Each structure stands twice: as structure tokens, then as C-alpha cells.
Amino acid sequence: MSLQNPVFIPGPTNIPEVIRKACDMPTMDHRSPAFADILNPALEGVRQVLRQSRGETVIFPASGTGGWEAALTNTLNPGDGVLACRNGMFAQKWIDMCQRFGLDVTVVDVAWGEGLPVARFEEILRADTEGRIKAVLITHNETATGVVSDVPGLRKAMDVAGHDALLMVDGVSSIGSMEFRFDDWGVDVAVTGSQKGFMLASGLAIVGFSEKAVAASKTATLPRCFWSIDDMRAGYAANSYPYTPSVGLLNGLKTATRMMLDEGLENVFARHARIAEGVRAAVFAWGLTPCAVSPELYSNTVTAIRTPEGFNASDVVALAARTYGMAFGTGLGDVAGKVFRIGHLGMLTDAMALSGIATAEMCMADLGLDIPLGRGVAAAQEVYRHGGAAARIAAE
Fold this sequence. Notes:
Layout: H1 17-23, H2 36-50, E1 56-60, H3 64-73, E2 81-86, H4 89-100, E3 104-109, H5 118-127, E4 133-139, E5 141-142, E6 147-148, H6 151-161, E7 166-170, E8 189-193, E9 205-209, H7 211-217, H8 229-237, H9 247-263, H10 265-285, E10 289-290, E11 302-306, H11 314-324, E12 329-330, E13 339-343, H12 350-366, H13 375-384, H14 389-395
Parallel strand pairs: 2-3, 2-4, 4-7, 7-8
Antiparallel strand pairs: 1-9, 5-6, 8-9, 10-11, 11-13, 12-13
Helix pairs in contact: 1-9, 2-9, 5-6, 9-10, 10-12, 10-13, 11-12, 12-13
């Protein structure tokens, strides 16, 4: 693997040099007054990216998986009902965590490539007249399949059903790269991590809690210690942590959120949408299709690409790493060997995306697929070039 090449896995993502340098700092006493100059701007920057003005935001030294656990343990009780959709590897992992905690999970299975079935969830919630279901889980962007599910639509369905469950959102591969509105969408718990849209290394689990979720934490009885938002609240009040924080990563997060806000969130989202459009144009030019079954489900952070029947998609990933020194994502779970993934989020430009598209194209041609060299690249160039299709559409 060449460290000079950008990575095209859907996280961890490429780290801008200015953020890498912000993380590379001397040891600091995290109980000194100076730590407040890192902690508070990082927290405020995250709240602006989440578009969260109420409730509490907590940053744990962990991965997104730790954020899932914090969401559950701070708000739920053993035996509580949870409603979730299993439409990908990461949705499945959160369901598995719920089951390990002794929660009563109602699982709605859909084909991998589909989004969360909002109408079915509304039916289930309407039928739950006793209020057994205490939380509804949704994976906003399923990283394994490149599928986006409808968070605001689910909130509307919950409201129409008159159900009082907490809405918990896995936004690990969406927040910071795609439109996300904590307040406006009525989200109760949002989970993300440092290693994707925030352009950092893995190591920070970022969790937003609504006022309703904070109230639920007062009576929740699932065991928690490391994940306690009560302890974190007390630490933050003293500009500190209840344990040793990841000071360098927090300094990097302070820098990352400032960069994103300086660029403008709408511009960040538009950049991701444009790069994703170019990748998808290449996919269709190759005669292939995304795993996501319809355009409204297409992710702007990762595209899972279906390869022909009988072809092992993992070979593309292995050849790219071995021969061209470039990293793509393999298929996971139900789509292992059936798709390979191009991550297009975080620190990425049109020109960088073209390098990934060109390399994927070479790998597929090397492996015997009928992929003429240059076809996908040319399709993406039409999207990216200033006088291309995307520019013409915008002008109209």
C-alpha cells in the first residue's frame, strides 16, 4: 500500500495535513485551564455540524461503536422494546448490541440495498398501543451498501403514529458529509465518529442527546460507567473529563470543525454530492450498478458497486492494494464478494476522485471484466469539469 495515494475506503478517511499537525502536539495536563481552549471549541464546533442547539453533546474517547453503546446505556432499561431495521452490516451490529444488553428487539429485515421501510415502521408503532417500544433505531447511511435511509420521514411517521419512543440515529458515515439536522429532524440521539466526515483518525465517539434523551437518562437502569453522560457533564462543567481524554484528537477535532464551518456546511455537502455523482457516472459507464436499488437511496459518501454474477468483487480490492497501492472497501456480510466499495467522503477533491476511478477501472480490466479503459473516467470528467454536465445543469 502506498501512503502517497489517497484512500477510498469509507473510513477512516484521508487526513488533511493541517488536522494531522493539530493532533501532533506535546503532552498537556488535561486538568489544567489550558485544556478548556481545546475542549470547548471542539464541543461547540460539533454542535454546529450536528445543527444541535438543545440537549447535550458528548465526545467519548472511542469509536462509533462506543457511541452506539452510550446511546443505549444512558437511555434504556433491561427488557425495553427497540424497533430496528436490518438492511446492512452496521445496522446488524447495532441490533446485536441491543440483544446483548437484554433489550427486546423487533427486527424488520429488508434486502441489503434497500432503505428503512418507513411505512412498515409506522404500522408497527401504531400497533404498539402499550408503548412497549422505547427506542427506534435507524442507520442514516449504511456504509456496507451505500444506502441512505429517510430520517425526517421516520420522525414524521413516529409523530403520525403518536408514538413516544426515542429516535436514535447512526450517523457515523453521514454526519459532516451529508445533510443532517438534529433539531429540525427531531432526533433524540445521534451517533458519529471522528474518522469519517470529520477527517480525523479513529478514536472519538461523538454523541448528541436531545432534552428528551437526557431526561430518559435520569431513570435509565442499564449499567454504565465509562459511558455515563452524568459523569461527562460533571467533567465538562469543570472544563475537564472524568478520565483521561484524547487531547490530540480533540485538538484535531477543534481544527476540523473550524475548517468545515469555514468552508460552509452547504458547500461541504454540495462537494460530497458532486464527487458522488461523478463516481456513480463512472459506475454506470462501466455497465455496472450500485448496490442501492434506486436513486433516492444513493449515498453521497460511499458507493457499493455490484459486479457481474460469478465474479469475486473482493479481487478488485486485493489487486488495487497489491499492484497499485490503493485502498478500496470490500463487501461485507450479505454482499461479501458481490460488491466492492468506493468511499468518497471527507478530504476529497474531484481530481482525487478521478485517481480512484481510474485505478478501479484498471483493476477490473486487469481481472478480465469488459471494462474499456477510460470509459468511467470520461463519464466522471463530464460531471467534474467546469463546462461539463453538472455545470450546465447548475447554470440552467
